[in-house]
Amino acid sequence: MKKFYVIVLLCLGFTTTLSAQNPSDKHIEKTTELDEVSIVTAKKAVEQKADRTIFNIADQPHLNSGSVLEGIKKLPGLIASDIAGMMYQGKQLAVFMDGRPLNISSTELNAFLEGMPANSVEKIEIITQPGAEFPATSGGAILNIITNKNAKKYLSATYTNSTSFTNYYDMRWRVNNSILLNAKNKYFGWQLNVGQNYRESAVWTSVKKEENNNLSLLSQTDADRVGRNNFLKSVLTFDIGKDRLLLNYDITQNDNDSYTLGNGPGFNTDDTSLSDGLRQSAVATYQKKFENSSQKLEFKFSYDNNDNTFELYPTGNTSTTLNNSSKQNLYNFKVDYSQPLKFSDNGKLSFGALYEALLFEAASKGLTNLDYNRTTAASYVELQTEFDKFKFIVGTRAENYDISGTTDTEDLSAFRQFKLFPNASAQYNFNKMIFLNVNYNKKITLPSTSALNPNNTNYQNPNIDYSGNPNLQPTIFNNYEIKLSAFDYAFLSYNLSSAKNQVITRISLQDDLVFNSNENLSEVKIHNFNFGMPIPYMLFTKGLAETMKMNVNPDTMNFLYVYSGYQYHQIPGVKTNGFWLFNFMSQILLPEKIKFVANYNYIVPNGNYYYFTFEKSFRNSLDLNLSKKLFKNQVTLSIYADDILNSNRTVINSFGTPLLLNNKMDSRKFGFSLNYKIPTKNKLAKEDSNLLNNTKKEEEGLLN
Fold it and tell me: Was domain 2-700 assigned CATH 3.30.930.30?
């Protein structure tokens, strides 16, 4: 019991010092426009809300100095890998960008996020409790990558660069550049973000089979990779009276090459693989404004196109071993309306509808072997209300699915069903910054097209094979959670995710041929305990009483943030072990306002992740970052070293097989990043990056 009180006191000691930075403590900043004042607040590194956790990426150099994937992997409680997929605190994640699902998974998703510079991202929302207003297909939780920013009433220009190198065996370079322009006048606002990413990397793998207490080699590869990514993101906003029209167009082009040496029993290979991708997205949104800002009506239409090709052939030979391609078109229309309730403070009634159509086609050497069609029609209603210290949310979503398709040999098993997906949440507020939340929701995940694709889009050799599974069925989730949050930085939670027909990666062995594919796991329950708490170092020098008197900004505080989690996968008929996750993030302010951040992630080995057992730590990385603002905060310079101990390695056993898989990437890298706010004629362009414009609203997330 004494330990419990100590933990509570430590938590209060830190969060009390942060309470002065609450959005309610606003100050007024004078501008050159005499008829206007701007209300600004300090951005928070992490913001806990009842249904989501928000990570500020733009102003944290240790998160935005590399790729989006590298930044995501540093978030406490998040697991991301080609084999394990992506999970946050035990919940399978559906990945969105600017409020729209990417509809890709596994290797393709990681490659896409690796090719996107983290400094093009403003923040990341992890919506752990998606209500009825979110698609039922969001599964256990949503990871929403937000890149859009509001255009300001002046021209603003920002240039960013990140350059790094790895030195494992050979030196390999990674460079990205981007420029962000935005402005607003009395007619319209606009934003343009253009950039490129070039990266060299390497990966070494081996697959061994245990026989008579000995390990025999089946495959060993040494791959050098070169990735090129170019992107353009554009936004136009028009004010039509009190209403607003938003037009978005994004395009991303990927060109990834790999040169792989392979060997095993009876073979030696020298192969080249070429992977090209083109993603385009266009969105039109009309927002109807009312006198009451809590009343909203929004119409949105979006179109997404994704074309990919993959070729594998012996180096120096024009005859391809693999020549696969895919085309995907996604059409989406939705309408959302919310109306405040007269009988309840902060209460509202929301309802809406959605229609979506997805067309996917895959081909091998020019011959179509999968034609997949999916339509979804949905509607929802949700009620939010408050009584005294209680807040309640209850809703339901109805979705009708019509899924069909054909392969080159047979028709797919059609999936035509109408389902209801209820959700309920109750929250008790001890005060404005401490609350207890209990939640239930039912969700579904439809298999991604990358998991359905029957064609191999990975390297293969005579002993290694990859393929998708066109007959995968949707996964049904029942999610339960209880969570205690103190301010924005401390929390204690338990959640249970019970899934039927969970889509997983499965590795099997037939003779000496290793198959990597996807299948439905009939039932799995994932238990997850999580704990996070900041510890200010001044507690040890000034004591609790003095610490609680301090009124400081967390950006100028020395502290250690501790996160720990325990995850247990319960699979019928399989004996499994849970595993612990730990994250320690320390911030120290050095002389000359130099900020030092050390981030250490570690997962205890010998735990089970679905059908995999990790023989060594699945994640073991120490990252260091030094950053400083220069020239009146116009320039932010950071120097970093990731995986400085070169200890990140994956060594796993696959259940039901005698296989041992070993994977090592050149994850240790050193580099610097530069963010330069280019001076413009308007002095307001020098606005501090830690401040939020007063037009910033939460609707820029999933509600747009």
Answer: no
